Amino acid sequence: MSLSGRNRMPAFGSDNMAGMSPQILEALARCNEGPARSYGADEVSARLERRFAELFEHEISVLLVSTGTAANTLCLAAATPPWGAVLCHPLSHIENDECGAPEFFTGGAKLVPVEGPLAKIEPEALQVKARLGKGDVHSVQPACVSITQATELGTLYTPDEVAALGAICRESGLALHMDGSRFANALAALDVSPAQMSWKAGVDLLSFGATKNGAMGVEAVIAFAPQRGHELELRRKRGGHLTSKMRFLAAQMEAYLADDLWLGNARHANAMAARLARGLAGIEGVEVQEGARANILFCKLPEGMAAALLDAGFYFYADRWAPNVVRLVTSFATTAADVDLFVAAARSFGMAPVAGRS
Fold first, then answer.
1. Could you report the per-residue pLDDT of 108-148, keeping only the tens digit for each?
2. How far apart are CA 25 and CA 19, in angstroms?
3. In contact, 114 and 87? CB cutoff 8 Å
4. Residue 315 pairs with which residues in a beta bridge?
5. Confidence (pLDDT) at 270
6. How far is CA 103 from CA 85, 133, 207, in A?
7. Which of 61, 163, 311, 343 is an S-S bond match for 223, by CB 3.0 to 4.6 Å?
């Protein structure tokens, strides 16, 4: 069944599949009225920078880009020389899903994996990797640590866990970057402030996501040391990510932050994931992954159930991680009816014999 059909089944493949929040669509329409200065010199962009400073309770430098890849790689490039090493978890997005963009934008820096359970870097492992090869002319030099919040498994770093990694970074002279494509989902789940989750815990550079949570296509690069701002501006231009009609990116982000739309969207997505987890956990043979608290859920389904659900028209990713393991992602647009329909279908397939299914 086509995902473009009007009567399509609910999709749990990614929060990127959701459309736009109406408030953001309306902001784009308003922004389209009349001319405005280009390349970020418009009034909306100026207001947005002040809004971000208020939100994070800190003087910052903000640059808007249209993709998460651009946000992540510009941060890493500003923190890592070509002979440097970016320390990251082996399950991180920059390690597995950026098509070599970190290496490209840094001019050749190496990604060095640092292990830890539930897709989170373990402080003891970071202590070792932070010293590895340091001062040795034959080795890449540790320069930056990158963590993902929420992680690719849907797990979360608490502020204390981030602070523990931040302390190691300070002791070792490393920058700390946070890939926050789902930053809002993490804050909503942990009920902490943006400041507590970022610079107060030692984060130097943040990729602040909006696209997955209701925007059309905008992310922010946030530097908590404003002196990095000019270099980031030059890298953004050189990398081809300085948008001429920047007001349309700024309008999205301004509407995203207005009246805490971003947190409301994230709370809803998280609540739908929790509802999905509760429903699936009650089905015999379904194993729901422990630890996920945001809007990503991993489950192991009984043999044949994933194929039956896909055949029925539901959309999600399966068998990429292990046999019968699926990833289900909810968004601000997911409804309780979507979740309940999926759970009911899973329950019915769990009760039906595998043989003879189409």
1. 999 999 999 999 999 999 999 999 999 999 999 999 999 99
2. 10
3. yes
4. 11
5. 98
6. 10, 19, 17
7. 61
**Tokens, residue 136:** 């040795």
Quote the CA–CA distance of 99 and 225 in Å, as a whole number. Answer: 29
Cα dist from 145 to 64, 83, 142, 166, whole Å: 22, 15, 8, 9
Q: Please identify which residue in the block is written with the tokens 């070599």.
A: 100
Query: Cα separation of 163 and 244, whole Å?
Result: 37
One-letter amino acid of 142 = P
- pLDDT average per 10 residues of sequence, the chain (358 residues): 57 96 97 93 94 96 97 98 98 96 97 96 97 94 97 96 98 98 98 98 98 97 94 96 96 98 98 96 93 92 96 94 95 97 94 49
Amino acid at 301: L
User: Which residues 6+ apart lie within 8 Å of 241 measured at CB?
Assistant: 65, 66, 67, 70, 74
- The span from the CA of 15 to the CA of 18, in Å, is 6
251 and 19 Cβ atoms separated by less than 8 Å: no
Residue recorded with tokens 């109406």: 22
Supply the pLDDT for residue 8.
75
Residue found under tokens 């290496």: 103
Q: Where are the alpha helices (DSSP H) in the chain?
A: 22-31, 43-56, 68-79, 93-96, 101-106, 123-131, 159-172, 183-190, 194-197, 229-238, 247-257, 261-281, 305-311, 336-351
Q: Which of 233, 258, 191, 215 is nearest to 74 (CA)?
A: 233
Distance CA 348, CA 358 (A): 14
Structural tokens at position 313: 């028209």
* Residue 233 near residue 64 (C-beta atoms within 8 A): no
Question: Strand, coil or helix: what is 216?
Answer: coil
Cα 191–chain centre separation: 17
- Which strand (E) or helix (H) includes residue 113? strand 110-113
